[in-house]
Sequence to fold (342 residues):
Amino acid sequence: MLGLGAAGIPRIADALETAARQRPSVVWLNFASDTGCTEALIKATYPNAAQLILDILSLDYNETIMAAAGTQVEEILEGALKRGDYILIIEGGIPMKKGYGMIARREMLDIGKEFAAKAKAVIAVGSCATWGGVPAGDPNPASIRGVRDALGVDAINLDLCPVNEGILVATIVDFLVTQRIPEMDNHGRPKIFYGQTIHDQCERRGHFNAGRFVERFGSREEELGYCLYKMGCKGPDTYANCSKMRYNDRVSWCIGAGAPCIGCGEPEWVDKFAGFYERLPGVKVPGLGGVEAGADKIGVVAGVATVAGIAAHAIGTARKGRFKKEPPSEKADKPSDTGKAR
Fold:
């Protein structure tokens, strides 16, 4: 999952054993969200939530799953802040207008700034925390923003709505192994998880290339697992590894379950990709140098791309001398008088 291969297993094991001895402190703050990413956390399996929280990390604060309440909770939170050097996980967007997001009579924005200042790493989980998510959709009366914009910190953005629990756990483990922030794209997302589009890795990609599409739900084409591009799939414009990681103990994912990708791994997806069942105007077809085609012509264009690819391969083969004008002599394949092949 982290791209380390079998050679990396001892490093991961050592990092987790060290973490188990030291129990790195984690503070999880919930702001403007529906707590879906916390739900994702408790469904983690490798390691599971109990192992992660009780054996590997010291999850000092998470208002949804912690046993404490009231004054005791505030004391725990203040203690973590005084110690500092924790991993700060933020779930939910941050209202920039006063009075729109309050916790214990304090602005979410002020709480976020205070805790980010003493964190050794800040992780924004889910699209609400990365750019604002559904609450930041137009008209956004609270002026909700993502963690990076609101707090001015280089947070690790783990997009998707909700975040995939495997990505979250792997990111934490990666930080424990390397003690550094992973290589990120221009949206602050780890490239190892957000380096390719849904379309590039889709199990229905072969149907797209052949021009086979679902035209309506409940059809024979849907039963055969044809491409969902015409049904509004935003996979060609969405960077994430959902088809590899999957959800619910890696059982399935949106397209695998028969629903088009709505693009929840991309900034401003709520407005950018509305309506969710309207198809994208065009998709780049491989093999034709970035040529775009609408759904009605994709099969034809993809066919042209395939023919063009075959032709290019043939030309290259001829230039290398692998195509010969005359077939090889049969004599060359016959054994010599000494019984040895020439």
Q: What stands out?
A: The longest strand covers residues 119-125. Confidence is low (pLDDT under 50) at residues 305-315, 322-342.
